[in-house]
Amino acid sequence: MTGLSIAVVGAGTAGLASAILLARLGFRVRVLERVANLQPVGAGVLLQPSGLAALRELGLLAECTGLGAPVGRLYGTTACDGRVILDTRYDDWQVGTFGLGIHRAVLMTSLLDAAKQAGVQIETGVAISRFSQSAHSVELFVSDGRGGEQPYGECCALILADGVRSTLRGQMRVKQRVQPYPWGALWNIQPTPAGMQTTDLRQWYRGCREMFGVMPTGSTHLQRDQRLSSLFWSLPTAQFAAWREAGLDAWKNRVMQLTGGVAEPFLQAIESPAQLSFAAYADVRMQRWHDGRVLAIGDCAHAMSPQLGQGANMALIDAAALARALRPQRAAEVIDWERVFGSYTAMRRQHLGYYRQASRLLTPLFQSNSRVLAVLRDSALYLARHNRLGRYHAATTLVGARTGWLFGAYEEAALCAWRGTREVREALPE
Ligand SMILES: Cc1cc2nc3c(=O)[nH]c(=O)nc-3n(C[C@H](O)[C@H](O)[C@H](O)COP(=O)(O)OP(=O)(O)OC[C@H]3O[C@@H](n4cnc5c(N)ncnc54)[C@H](O)[C@@H]3O)c2cc1C
């Protein structure tokens, strides 16, 4: 057991998952979260086998799979003629594996409970405004409400897990770039209508400019017998105000046309535009993720578009990798943080590099006004779908198991997945 203290800014997936694993290694961990009342918001998320392997390491696999919904494939067709565009199956990676559609509240409740059990000190309503590091420690500051700031304690190392809109990342002496995507998504969670349970994450497209998706999302701790689905609708950020003005019926008509009426039962309970929330996203690039005693993880370090469904997944893997980098130091009285964080960066570089590139490249194929890209996408996916290697490449990308375009597999995922899958199967509700 070490007495060294680590502060984590942000109680999202990345912050809580790392706090749990670091506390279990014997570090004194404080999580500082600016939101006073932690109420998980957001759409359902799809967790991949690689992220499920990290959940397993956290000891939360059974709880999450007991409530989540298995997703066996991503299946997308065109609006006009029902042509298949996307058909990526988890079986093409390893037979019997799948992703897990899960309500964000389930993931966050499980992480929060586990963090408390691990002895993590969680302080809410604390917005860290600045940090300052010396040779021996990192000092934290909060605003004093009068235009100045006041100290908010010291720690040996600081983990920035404060999300894509981090105000602290810029204080790291690391070259970085944040580029907002021009498109975002409207989302909503609905009870799954009777007879519409499926293990497909279903999408419908009109070129690259219209997309509607339905993802099985399972149930929540509070309502275990109600199965839910997450709905997604692509929208350019600049058109959000116009979308609201146009009214709900105009939108419902477009969804009905796009899906050939299939979406109707999902739309019935939506009575006002306010029921749909808009999420904008950005691409975050950092030359490295550490600076002395400070490390950035999760969306703060490498936010990407949700097109590949990897953000929360990568946040969980970041936490597992950080614990792995720190494990040999668990009994040390003094830690060379630069070195430990450097070894974390080395562990994560290729894996995250591939997914950042892939999500940047693929996003305009599903969210843009380009007709050329639509033709390119449809042809490339057709070719990929009709040969074994293409299907394998698509599936390994989906499950979060690639570290390069041609070669490279994220071994951890491959090694853990079959074990994870067996446990997932056992934990699944009948
Ligand atoms: C529409 C949409 C769909 C998505 N679908 C998927 C999916 O299917 N699969 C998937 O894996 N990922 C998905 N993602 C991505 C995923 O949601 C994110 O990658 C993930 O939530 C990032 O977690 P995080 O912990 O890094 O950041 P966050 O969850 O953003 O947490 C950051 C926390 O830091 C706090 N904070 C910020 N600043 C401060 C401060 N100064 N002081 C104290 N606290 C602070 C915030 O309040 C917040 O609680 C989706 C994202 C969107 C927008």
In short:
The chain is of the alpha/beta class.
Note down, in words, how this protein is organized.
There is one protein chain. The protein is built from 13 helices and 19 strands. With 430 residues, it is α/β, with parallel strands linked by helices. It has a single domain (5-427), classed as FAD/NAD(P)-binding domain, CATH 3.50.50.60. A 7-stranded mixed beta sheet has the order 6-5-14-15-16-13-17. A 6-stranded mixed beta sheet has the order 8-2-1-12-19-18. The chain is globular. The two termini are 42 Å apart. The structure holds flavin-adenine dinucleotide. Flavin-adenine dinucleotide (FAD) binds at residues 9-15, 32-35, 43, 45-46, 126-128, 161-163, 167-168, 185, 187, 279, 281, 298-300, 306, 309-313, 315.
Determine the structural class based on helices, strands and strand pairing: alpha/beta
> What is the CATH topology assignment?
FAD/NAD(P)-binding domain
Largest sheet: 7 strands, mixed
The termini sit apart by 42 Å
Q: Output the CATH class name.
A: Alpha Beta
How much helix is in the residues?
25-40%
The CATH homologous superfamily? FAD/NAD(P)-binding domain
* Helix run count: 13
Instruction: Please state the overall shape, judged from the principal axes of the Cα atoms.
Output: globular
